[in-house]
Amino acid sequence: MKTQITRSQESVLKLLETLDRPLSAQALCTQLRQQNHRIGLATVYRSLEALKLQGLVQSRSAANGESLYSLVKQDQHYLTCLHCGESFPLETCPVHDLEMQLRSSASFKVFYHTLEFFGLCSPCQSEH
Amino acid sequence: MKTQITRSQESVLKLLETLDRPLSAQALCTQLRQQNHRIGLATVYRSLEALKLQGLVQSRSAANGESLYSLVKQDQHYLTCLHCGESFPLETCPVHDLEMQLRSSASFKVFYHTLEFFGLCSPCQSEH
DNA sequence: GTTATTGCAAACAATTTGCACCCAC
DNA sequence: GTGGGTGCAAATTGTTTGCAATAAC
């Protein structure tokens, strides 16, 4: 479990820090190239995987099947509509206390958590 | 948003009721065929999608990228190891109260939620 | 009979992998 | 120099889709 960071991992990390919402690997790659980084999609995936292993980056899968990546620091708690797939961020996270308890447990080292509620958003409730 | 259940959806639902852990679509298809259901993988996916839309079935993505399906009734809350990918079920769910609050809100109709903590399990902590 | 559902196979797309090249140390 | 990191393109694989056949009503 190496902990050293490579050049690519650093540029991915830097980019994620400027973003306020999770992006797909492909979108991240496109943005990096627009910023004149010569980087391949495979490297973006490899970097994201490495950063996840270090507990710096998290991913969740969107309704369309692709994975969305963001910093662990940026809490990700959503209300997600089963019908249209849209995710509405939750303001507060109700499980911080439990996370703190778990963090102090030696048997499992917690880096971060995700919490997602699934259901129907207001517009989708009125369709039949 | 139709609510009627088809024959295939019913057999998938029946199978899920007999299982105590989430399975992939492929595994579900295999099991159904072993039980002499003549069913195609595509139909399993279509059934799972329909059941999800009805709030009966939930899915989460495993470490290897595939989706694992289970009944909404079967709570799914995990400690997941970033290193080996193994998921350890949590005994209790700390967010039921919040879910109850959200359920009574008219603006978003909550069917179910997922909660997952990510980190390193005990064996993986000792590797370096 | 008409319409929705199904199985199959082909298509698709996100992700992973093989490999030659290149950079850092 | 050597070993790890990288880009590219090919391979892989979970999932979706087109379509003819079938089942439901």
Descriptive overview:
2 copies of one chain form a homodimer. Chain A is about 40% helix and about 25% strand. The first copy, chain A, is an alpha+beta fold and about 130 residues long. In chain A, the strands form 2 sheets. In chain A, strands 1-3-2 form a 3-stranded antiparallel β-sheet. A 3-stranded mixed β-sheet of chain A has the order 5-4-6. In chain A, strand 2 and strand 3 (about 65-70) form a beta hairpin. Chain A is flat, with a radius of gyration of 17 Å. Chain A starts with 6 loop residues before the first helix and ends with a helix. The mean pLDDT of chain A is about 90. At the A-B interface, helix 4, strand 6 and helix 5 of A face helix 4, strand 6 and helix 5 of B. Chain A binds a DNA duplex (25 and 25 nucleotides) through helix 3.
Structural topology:
The structure is a homodimer of 128-residue chains.
Chain A: H1 7-18, E1 23-24, H2 25-34, H3 41-53, E2 57-61, E3 67-71, E4 77-81, E5 87-89, H4 96-103, E6 108-121, H5 122-126
Parallel strand pairs in A: 4-6
Antiparallel strand pairs in A: 1-3, 2-3, 4-5
Helix pairs in contact in A: 1-3, 2-3
Chain A binds a DNA duplex (25 and 25 nucleotides) through residues 6-8, 24-26, 38-43, 45-46, 65-67.
Helix content of chain A: 25-40%
Oligomeric description of these chains: homodimer
**What is the count of β-strands of chain A?**
6
User: How far apart are the first and last residues' alpha carbons of chain A, in Å?
Assistant: 51 Å
Rg of chain A to the nearest angstrom? 17 Å
Low-confidence stretches of chain A: none
The greatest inter-chain interface is formed by:
A-B, 39 and 39 residues
Assign an overall shape of chain A.
flat
DSSP helical segment count of chain A = 5
Query: Pairing-aware structural class of the strands and helices of chain A?
Result: alpha+beta
Main β-sheet description of chain A: 3 strands, antiparallel
| Mean model confidence by pLDDT of chain A | 90
- What is the ordering of alpha helices and beta strands of chain A? HEHHEEEEHEH
Strand content of chain A: 25-35%
Major beta sheet, strand line-up of chain A: 1-3-2
